[in-house]
Amino acid sequence: MSNLYRQVRETAIANESPTDSSPHEIAAPNVFPDLPDFGATYEDKHSGIQGGWIHVSISETTEVKNRGGVGTLSFDKNGDLVDYKMVLEGTTANCAGGKTPWDGWVSCEECRLAIHWQVDPTGTRESKLHQFARQRCGHFEAFAYDVRNREMPHFFVTEDHSKGALRRFTPDSADWNDPWNILYGPGLIEFLIVTPDSSGTAGRFEWTRDHNAGKKNAEKHFPNTEGMDVYENELYFVTKRFKSMFILNLDTGTYTNQTTRSGLFDGGPDQLQRILGDEGEILYFTESGGRDAGIHGRNAKGQYFTILESPVYEDETSGLAFSPDATRMYVAYQNIGILFEIRREDGLPFDEKSLNVKLRLFSKVNHMLLATGSPMTFFREQRSQYLIRIAGHDRTGSTCLTGKGTVRSYQSCGNGLSRTVSSVRCVPPIGSTTFTSTSTRTTTTASKHSNCDDNPHRDHPSDTTGHCKRYRLRGTTLPNNKSGVRVTTNTGHVLQTDLPRIMGGRDTAPQPIETLLAALMGCTQATAVFVARKMTPRVVLDRLELALTAERDERGALALPIETPPAIPARLQRVSGTVTLYAARQERLSTNELMLLREQTELRCPVANLLTASGCVMEVEWIDGNAKQA
């Protein structure tokens, strides 16, 4: 964490101190929190700045106890930063939280013996513990409310724990003439119990005072709940363990459960923010990890889309919020501590038609050096005019939207320390497809099926036959065994698969999924040897030992009725295990060598590439066997 004194424009140059071109002076020597988590915006009605707003940024830091907190960034009507201050300090692991209906903020601690605070974003009122704080026993995450019945309002909190029960607080009384005290009085705390039907994607729910029953139900059906939101009579919350979203109808006591494993969304869903557009509500998600964490959305038709990603920052996106007019999106990459402001150059708000797009956030790194011992620290703003390009088509098949946008980033820079800062640009995916559409159907013009660069195909035809590998196999059902298949390759090798007897097979051969896992092992072995041989300096591998476990949700394959597409994907959902490498002559691999081997093998192995592209989570640890034996 570092002191903050002024806003610095984008004109910082590598190895030179940036110049101060801020239109406003910021003199408050406050700290900008590390590990920014949840975010929200409020119209600024207290500072005398017409049309301005306040952005709340939460610190989830746990490295030093009581060093977390809540900070606020104040912007004028032009979106320029005019003030910064901490409104809550001395807390630990502040995570998510949420708005109150009276423009307050509830900050939830996500740690052992965690508590809740009610915070005034303007800093006018003192931060206080509220009723949920009487149960110092949760890894609390997000806060939401249902105040349609003002005589009996309900307030909800999720818990990011494998046995984290979802809580509902109902105050004994609610004085709306003094709403800031509603959460401080006595009331009833209950816990969610869901009972799924035979499909597993819907069911009924109820509330119980039994905390243990709530924990057991959460562990089974919705462990590690994260973001939460309420809109009219529906409560939305996501569970990152199962990568799914629950939608509870608060009036009927029924719910549905939908997967968030869609498109290019490979990490766990985290926070939720809603924007109301012409087509109804749009829920935007941040992403907890993943290879290229980003921002994703779900429209009123239940369609998912991706709006932003970063293959550079393998990080958690957080702090998702929108300016009051929805023209500016705020999102933080948590581990590096940068808050981005994203706008569309066409000036349209983010509640326009959803796009089937995935933007890649690349980093061109510069270094800004501050003299050792310098009393000056900087809150860095970066600005470029070419940063975002959006190209895609909405999944309704009606209109193709294209446009550009700009990005700002805000980052705290260490006092007297060298700090790397990033010059950022967003571009469409490499080799992406350009879509056009008509009113009745969508036509596609795809990029060439070729991995060549812009140079001519000098050594092979342009139709890629010179570098396209094909694999031809023939399969026939085994005699008297409809679940078994005998496969012959065009090179003469014979493979066979079968099912266990409990699944109606004869158990005469490995299952198809086991064969797929075996293919992953074989492909990993061959690719790792190739990568090691091409490294500089060259690495000679003696052998690999692989121990892998694959997981899938069988409801994806067995869901009925058969005419309805299953809500849960049938593919593998997770592959975990270890790959232990033994270099020749008992040589030990450096950390960089092991990292390069893993990264390039996973990228170049066709089977691993196939699995990750499908959305399967790869949690495979690579180990230096010689170092382990030493």
Explain briefly what this protein structure is.
With 630 residues, the chain is mainly β. The chain is 10% helix and 43% strand. The chain contains 6 helices and 39 strands.
Write the layout of secondary structure elements.
Layout: E1 2-4, E2 7-8, E3 30-32, E4 36-43, E5 53-59, E6 68-75, E7 81-91, E8 94-99, E9 105-109, E10 116-119, E11 128-129, E12 140-146, E13 154-159, E14 167-171, E15 187-196, E16 202-208, H1 211-221, E17 225-231, E18 234-239, E19 244-249, E20 254-259, E21 268-277, E22 280-288, E23 294-298, E24 304-309, E25 317-322, E26 328-333, E27 338-344, E28 360-369, E29 379-391, E30 402-412, E31 418-427, E32 434-437, E33 442-445, E34 473-478, E35 481-489, E36 494-497, H2 512-534, E37 541-551, H3 555-558, E38 574-583, H4 591-604, H5 606-614, E39 617-624, H6 625-629
Parallel strand pairs: 2-29, 38-39
Antiparallel strand pairs: 1-3, 4-5, 5-6, 6-7, 8-9, 9-10, 10-11, 12-13, 13-14, 14-15, 15-16, 16-20, 17-18, 18-19, 19-20, 21-22, 22-23, 23-24, 25-26, 26-27, 27-30, 28-31, 29-30, 32-33, 34-35, 35-36, 37-38
Description:
This protein is mostly beta strands and 630 residues long. It has a domain of 120 residues: GMP Synthetase, Chain A, domain 3 (2-Layer Sandwich). It contains six helices and 39 strands. The strands form ten sheets. The chain has a nine-stranded antiparallel sheet with strand order 12-13-14-15-16-20-19-18-17, covered by helices on one side. A six-stranded mixed sheet has the order 2-29-30-27-26-25, with no helix packed on it. A hairpin with a 4-residue loop joins strand 18 and strand 19. Helix 2 packs across helix 4. It is globular, with a radius of gyration of 27 Å. The two termini are 39 Å apart. The N terminus is likely disordered. InterPro entries: KH_dom-like_a/b, OsmC/Ohr_fam, OsmC/Ohrsf, PhoX. Pfam families: OsmC (PF02566), PhoX (PF05787). This is OsmC-like protein.
